[in-house]
Amino acid sequence: MGQPDHSLAALRPLNEGELIEWEEAYVAVEAYLGALRIRNRLLVAELVRGILWRASARHAKEPGVSVRSLAMDETLKEIAEWTKQVLAEPLQQGRLAARGRLALLLTDMPGQWQSVFLTPEPWPPAFVESMRKSYLKAGPQFAALTMTPRPLELNAIGSGAAQWWETMDRRPVIRKMFFFFLLLLLVAVVLWFVLGPDIELPR
Amino acid sequence: MDSSPSHADSGPPTGIKPYTSLFTAGVRRTIFFGLVFTINLAAGIWLFDLYDRLGMHRAHGLILGLFLLLNGLLTLGTMHAFIGAWDFLRGRRRAICITDLAKDKTGPLTQKHVVVMPVYNEDIVKVCGRVEAIYRSIEAAGQLDAFDFYILSDTTNLDCWVEEEVAWTNLCRRLDGFGKIYYRRRRKNENRKAGNIGDFVRNWGGHYEAMVVLDADSLMDGGDIVKMARTMELYPRLGILQTPPKLIRGGSVFTRMQQFAMRLYGPLFIRGLNYWQLNSGSYWGHNAIIRVQPFSEFCELPALPGREPFGGRILSHDFVEAALMVREGWEVWLAWDIVGTYEEAPPTLVDHLKRDRRWCQGNLQHMWLVFARKFPLPSRVHLFMGIMAYLGSPLWFLFLAFGTWVAWERRKSDLSDLTVVSRLFEWLDKLAAWVGQWPSLKPVVTQLHHLRDLTLKMTTNDQALILMGLVATMLFLPKILALIGGVLHGPTRRSFGGAIPLILGVAMELVLSMFMAPAIMIAHTFMILGMVMGASVSWGNQTRETDGTGWGEAVAVHGPAFIAGVLWTALALWIGPSFALWMSPILLGMLLSIPLSVFTSRVRYGQALKKRKLFSIPEEINQPEIMTLADNAQAAVDAALTARAAGREGVIAAVVDPYVNGVHVSLLDASDPDEDHSELAEKMLKEGPGALKKDELANILYHGPSVLAMHRAVWSRPFDTLHSSWGKAVESYRIRTEPDAV
Fold first, then answer.
1. Has this prediction a pTM greater than 0.85?
2. Alpha-carbon span A151 to B372, nearest angstrom
3. What is the mean pLDDT of residues A103-115?
């Protein structure tokens, strides 16, 4: 536990602005560790302190960069580097950070391995094995089958209707004329029904 | 275990004895359709004779034609229940049931099967709950090794997408289901559900002998799934095995009424359907098991001539897939004895009609297939029944309209009601003379003469009442038969909560469904008119739960029915009180459509009925284990991995949360397209996800490096350079300590 090379004697007084900046950085790192579901306060405090020391060292070299950005940059870098070592995998297209976080989740780091998180080697073999085996398999290997639609075989009525229908789709003028004709026919039928002769059935 | 089945040819295996002979099928179909035809013809002749006696009107021919069609459909439905009841009475041992093949069979399944659940913008936690229940249920049946599970997402809502990834990950973590439960989301959901299943078959179908196709609201008992899979293995001619799903979890009056009706009357119809369709059954789109190889070979749907709504892509794929399967010699059966098969229903009449809009277009597209070659007759009957389920409404409307017209003309013309002698008198006389040629048939001749004399005395009023009685009998016979059976059969009676709730339930269902029918008729008529005008339907996700229909929405949906009701009532009263009385059930239904729709949508009234055991179903009174498993399912929910926490839901979580981000990026295709999304990502960071168009947001979410870069940015940049939503999300993780805590 702790950082033996950083005694309280090394502390220097911070001005109000610096205090606010470092408070923000602290809160951000702490929140990120909270987002990783690390719940042990002592552990969180230790990790935050270690990360902030490194951010402080960088801040001395990069005074133009905000403290919070440096602290978070260090946090993300530290986690990515550490998981890279645990997984013993090369960086693949910048996705290792995601892969590492996923491995932490599937290994149940927050529940079972909090104390191991970000610690140097050697790690418990069970933890390492679990980390390296963790993966997301959304689908198995393809086992393809072909699905080709067979043409719809219509009888004479169907074929005729299909031809006519597609002609109307291609030519809106014909469609309009057809519907106009249908409307006329409907009106004619209605008129015949209303005004036409009565029906006499032979007996 | 054979994980990659292969078939020698495209047809079903030869040399295996069919489960039923062609002769049996022929006899049963002749009996069934012969009864339908005879009853309908007799009713048609009766009506013709009545019109003839009253004096033919120009509209009578049309009414007669419509009557034959509508009464035919009514008779068809009633005969299903009647024959179903008869099949019940004959006893279980004499009934034909395909799953009897798997009866008393044990031992491990020999082939690999898969359970597929397509989802489309659903509540994924509930969906995963159902998957978990089925998974555990199959595990309890001891056959988990034979099954894989797929959640096939066609989700378009990006928040839902992230939630699905998270829920699936949690599900796999809890059930140790990695490599057993799979998740796939299609980037483009072409051809809707049929395309979704098709995509699965094309990519992974080769691993499996058969697939159990579910819906997002489906639930099936593991033991029953195993039984179905075993039947598939034991009967290689079987292409599709459909189960009759029961409606469950109804909260509103409307849903409870539906599930009660389906649960009580359904078994009769199902048995009647199985009686004649046998091996040429239909597929209803879910809660069925399908042999993958023939499905892949024959069931890719062809495009219909022309454009939507009547042409283009087939919307209602299920009936067609079954017809294509049967056409190629594969058998499609209805597993009527499978009890552990469930689904949920739309909660309100309005939601029911919204779903009907899709089904209506889909079913009417099947008109093309009626003219397709090589389809066997039972498949054509299924397609025809599907079409008429919707086309029946405008025909019924026309029937009523013509009837009103005739009554109106009669009222205007002041015609006397003097009638002529029934033609039936002459026909029966001729028939008696013809039968009289055979002396041995003398008793028949005597009876015919007796009937002839009766027709001579019969007034037109009597004749109309007899016809009305026949139609009413046809309408209510299924319900009466089911009620009698339910009350007399002890276990059934007790499972519904006793005789009194059963009788009251049937009475209430009868009244409510009678009053709702006209509103549905008008709605369907408008749907079809809309289609004729060229309006096509979009693919909406189904509402599963709601707090009821608002008055505004009810007015918007049922306004036409109400207006038609007002006008029609005025006309009917002008024609005469007697006519208005005849029409009153229909007119009241239209006038009450709005309040009826609102009140039946209310869950609180549904719960009040539940307390009194009204509209109760056996699954409510004695909950099956699979439902309990689904109720208790929690595997998909974990506070350590969530995309539903306040302030960081869905897309926000995918960017901000380290684990959700890890899951999301890890599930993306590793070969990122070489595209620069930095400008869009910057816009998203500065203006929030809402500032991007949906396709822009989707493109970013598909690009792993962009999602990772945004994760880094929201955590390290000063809040004043980001949109407030990111700041809020980051702040939500802050470990808060009380300032005064010591």
1. yes
2. 10
3. 90
pLDDT (tens digit per residue) in A57-71: 888 888 888 889 999
End-to-end distance of chain B based on CA atoms, in angstroms? Answer: 64
Token pair recorded at residue B268: 């009769």
Kindly report the backbone phi and psi dihedral angles of residue B515, in degrees, each rounded to the nearest multiple of 5, phi listed first.
-75, -25
Q: Per the structure block, which two tokens stand in for B438? A: 């055979």
The two tokens of residue B128 are 């995963």
**Best of A147, A167, A175 to disrupt the B interface by mutation (most B CBs within 10 Å)?**
A147
Residue of B nearest to A196 (CA): B58
Tokens in use for B643? 């995309």
Taking contacts as CB-CB distances below 8 angstroms, the residues of chain A near B52 are: 201
Interface-testing mutation among B191, B290, B292, B735, with chain A (most A C-beta atoms within 10 A): B735
- Decide which of B631 and B536 is more confident: B631
Chain A residues with CB under 8 Å of B61 CB are 199
Gap between the Cα atoms of B448 and B128, Å rounded: 66
Q: Which of B689, B593, B725 is nearest to B157 (CA)?
A: B689
CB atoms B310 and A165 under 8 Å:
yes
Burial of A58 (0-12, 13-18, 19+ CB in 10 A): middle
- Closest C-alpha to B707, from B660, B642, B638, B648: B660
Closest approach of chain B CAs to the CA of A130, in angstroms?
A: 13
Structure tokens at B635: 């595997």
Among residues B239, B182, B179, the alpha carbon closest in space to that of B211 is found at B239
Q: Are B715 and A76 within 8 A, CB to CB?
A: yes
B369: which chain A residues are within 8 Å (Cβ-Cβ)?
A: 152
Task: Count CB-CB contacts under 10 A for residue A60.
Answer: 7
Query: What gap in Å lies between CA B388 and CA B390, rounded to an integer?
Result: 5
Interchain contact, B371 vs A68, CB within 8 Å? no
Token pair 């610690």 is at which residue? A119
The size of chain A, in residues, is 203
Query: Quick check: A138 contacting B, CB < 8 Å?
Result: yes
Backbone phi, psi, residue B185, to 5°: -115, 135
pLDDT tens digits for range B72-116: 999 999 999 999 999 999 998 889 999 999 998 999 999 999 999
Residue B240 Ramachandran class (φ > 0 left, ψ -120 to 50 alpha, else beta): beta
CB contacts < 8 A, A to B, total 209
- CA-wise closest residue to B325 among B10, B22, B7: B10
In sequence order, what DSSP letters do the residues of B687-724 get, joined into one string? H-GGGS-HHHHHHHHT-HHHHHHHHHHHHHS-GGGS-H
* Tens-digit pLDDT profile for residues B596-615: 999 999 999 999 999 999 99
pLDDT over 90 at B421, yes or no: no
Total length of chain B: 742
Highest mean pLDDT among B128-142, B288-302, B538-552, B673-687: B128-142
Query: Is the link from the previous residue into A122 a cis peptide, with omega within 30 of 0?
Result: yes
CA distance A121 to chain B (A): 23
Spell out the alpha helix ranges (H) of B278-333: 292-298, 317-327
Residue type, B556: A
Give the distance from residue A51's alpha carbon to the nearest chain B alpha carbon, in angstroms. Answer: 14
The nearest CA of chain A is from the CA of B71 a distance in Å of: 24
Q: Please give the pLDDT value at position B741.
A: 38
Q: What is the pLDDT of residues B469-496, one digit of tens each?
A: 999 999 999 999 999 999 999 999 999 9
Do A29 and A52 touch, CB atoms closer than 8 A?
A: yes
B371: nearest CA in chain A? Answer: A158
A199 CB neighbours in chain B (<8 A) are: 56-58, 60-61
Sign of CA dihedral B436, B442, B447, B449: positive
Which tokens sit at B15?
């040399």
Q: At B385, which amino acid appears?
A: M
CB contact under 8 A, A31 and B292: no
